[in-house]
Design goal:
By secondary structure, the protein is α+β, with helices and mostly antiparallel strands. The chain contains one helix and three strands. The protein has one helix at 21-39; strands spanning 2-12, 43-52, 55-65.
């Protein structure tokens, strides 16, 4: 049997000349989440992104075998 978990992250756009600032900051945070969940036996099984106005939602879907 499997256990599932959803991690949601939100990033807002800033006034800057760096058009990749969301990508840069989100990559660091997402890598930290992947490391954190990986240490606890979770596997990333899917991702999704939605943009809205001045921001973006990142969804990370994890699963692991249910501990018995």
């Amino acid at each position: 049997m499997k256990e599932y978990k959803l991690e949601s992250l939100i990033y807002y756009s800033k006034l800057t000349l760096d058009k990749e600032h969301i990508l840069k900051s989100s990559s660091q945070d997402i890598q930290m989440k992947l490391d954190e969940y990986g240490k606890n036996g979770w596997r990333l099984v899917s991702t999704d992104v939605e943009d809205f106005g001045m921001g973006m939602y990142f969804y990370l879907y994890f699963e692991r075998d249910l501990k018995q």
